Amino acid sequence: MVTREYINELKINNIGVLYKLIQEQKDNGSTLLFLLESLGRLPSDFDGKNLTFLLENRNAQVRFWVVKNLGKLRDTSYLEIISKVAKNDPDSTVRREAVSSIGRMHSSKAIPLLIEMLNDLDPKIVLQVIRALLVFKSNIMVKEELKKLSNHPNEMIQSVIQKEFFPRKMTSGSSIKHTKCPDFMKNVVVQGDVRDILKDVPDESIHLTFTSPPYYNARDYSIYQSYKKYLDFLASVFKQIYRITKEGRFFILNTSPVIIPRISRQHSSKRYPIPFDIHPYLVQMGWEFIDDIIWAKPEASVKNRNAGFLQHRKPLAYKPNPLTEYIMVYRKKTDKLLDWNIRRYNWGTVKQSKVLGDYETSNVWKIDPTFDKVHSAVFPIELCNRVIKFYSYKGDLVFDPFAGSGTLGKAAMKLERYFFLTEKEERYVERIKQELGNKLLFDKEELHILNIESFQELAKRRIR
Question: What's the CATH code, domain 4-165?
Fold first, then answer.
């Protein structure tokens, strides 16, 4: 029986027997594959010719492990044969591994072959080629060829070239330290139109935004002349949120399709897919889509839409009960990785902010809705708790531009974050007062409820 221990022993003490074993197992797929996978680190005198004959094997996994093992040798004498695999193998995974093996050679002899492959039609192959060529980034020819890819049709390739050769510069000029936020915005509620309020919020002030905007013409406080005007309104707000969000931090949007009832039995109702229609606006303004989370509610908590179908069972008339809403996760575009953001914090803050105990591992969150006698669409506190814990650190500033009854502020207070809330409706601001009151918060600061003028004055004092 062939074992890893036996293979290792042959590599050290009897390499000839190992070559013979590979030859003998050329038609035994499972054993041959095990042999190739188990070769591990190869001795410097390993003769790759005892593998190259297997590049014609019908099993793509066999060919994959052959080029992988040849790459371990870092011997440029195999450059030509591996490059043929990279260009011609029918399996894209094998081709990518062949390019990777060429890259591991770190040989300037491979540059012409790699540059030729930049024209490959498979973006994954091109990305692997770019990775191999970046070793020679200082080479003028390589640099110029890679820069040409800034206009490549594939967005991932564009992104890599952008980061390597045309890094984004944060132009806000913000003097606020990444982990800090303006004092005059801590634990503040401002009553007024969010578009007017945000004009006085400094660049890169917010660590996290979580909001559920008013639904299109579904409530008295959210009436718009057209769906286009509604989307334009949301886009104008979210564009300002992009400006005030710190580099690489998150914007999380809770929305769902909304149904506008029919005006009579002779007309149809209309359903507007808000999450899907607002998404292109967000991407265009610079938000990077990260995740979609489904908020699932109990069926008993939602309006029944299929009572008619239950009785007549006629095809085309089926209407499922809408149990879900979308929690769309976006990140402010940056060339920096998440680790950069995390390293801005001291170890004590990181340790204290860790998410301990059980947590939801899937993108389906089963949370009961909350009902309120004042506000008709209230965030469940559990929803806010999860978002705040998963996407911010203690001491961060979290923002809700459509605060409603202020649930996000309540959750932030309990989780030792600062909050900044804006709300247009006076009755909801009054409800926030009832919910949060004048309680002393975790840092001994009181809740401040301001009108636009008072907030503007505070902002001017900060600038001075």
Answer: 1.25.10.10
In tens digits, the chain (464 residues) has pLDDT values of 789 999 999 988 899 999 999 999 888 888 999 999 999 999 888 999 999 999 999 999 999 999 999 999 999 999 999 999 999 999 999 999 999 999 999 999 999 999 999 999 999 999 999 999 999 999 999 999 999 999 999 999 999 999 899 887 765 556 679 999 999 999 999 999 999 999 999 999 999 999 999 887 665 556 788 899 999 999 999 999 999 999 999 999 999 998 876 666 767 778 889 999 999 999 999 999 999 999 999 888 888 888 788 889 989 888 888 899 999 999 999 988 999 999 999 999 999 999 999 999 999 999 998 776 555 557 899 999 999 999 999 999 999 999 988 999 999 999 999 999 999 999 889 888 887 765 544 445 678 899 999 999 998 887 54
Q: Report whether 328 contacts 279 (CB < 8 A).
A: yes
d(CA 165, CA 140): 13
CATH of 183-463, one of 3.30.70.1130, 1.20.120.450, 3.40.50.150, 3.30.590.20: 3.40.50.150
DSSP 455: H
pTM as predicted: 0.83
* Run of H or E including 438: none
Tokens of 277: 């229609």
Please name which of 251, 457, 267, 238 lies closest in space to residue 334, comparing C-alpha atoms. 251
